[in-house]
Amino acid sequence: MLAIVSIVTFFTALTTSAFALSDSSLLLHEKRDTQPTSFVYQGPASPDIPLPLRIALVQKNIAGLKDKLIDISTPGKAAYGQHLSKEEVFAYTAPTSAAVDAINKWLAENNLNSSQHSPAGDWISITPTVGQANTLFDANFVNFANTETGETTIRTLAYSLPAYLKDHVELVHPTISFPGSRSNIAFDSFPQSIQQGGAPASCDSAITPTCLQQRYHIPTTAATQKSNQIAITGLDGISASETVTILFTSGARSCSL
Fold it and tell me: Is the pTM of this model over 0.70?
């Protein structure tokens, strides 16, 4: 009888271990066959270099937000002309509770600190070293050089996630995505219909707040609400300089934002 109990206990423990292994095993999440043609391999990245990464968590109801935005922007719809508050948007875009629980478990298991990268909490930031990232994501982060600019960037061609994170993480960035081309693009003059707004011809070569105001008929009434904010988009690793932005808005023209 004791032998039977021991065998049952052994197989129970073995089964439990198998499930635990399966839950934590790494599964391929994203991959690409090769780097873009404008990038060449430059050797392994130093394992001690900090590697800032952003993790996108699965949102509660992004499809519902899309439907809502269509409703409020389509003439004839009952909700046409309505607006969503910040809190209402977050109700759609915030991560699911399951995603939050799963990512917190993963962070704790790997002694990682994170910070919230988006107002809704659907993006978080971590900064492991290259060596840690290779282990965490079963990846191979290496150096690639852009043949157009000479700049070097650290990327991997594939990465994996623990099985229990698979359905709760949209993606990890930057991993398999590469910076886009920054080649100069010829600037075309505004159509004559737009130029009739009264903006000087110099606006075709240098944009100032006054140019934008005249081009797009922005009201000249000063904004007095102290909570007003302005957002400036950053793409492909290019972001606005705070100093230059201040000079743009205050030096070229006095703006009340």
Answer: no
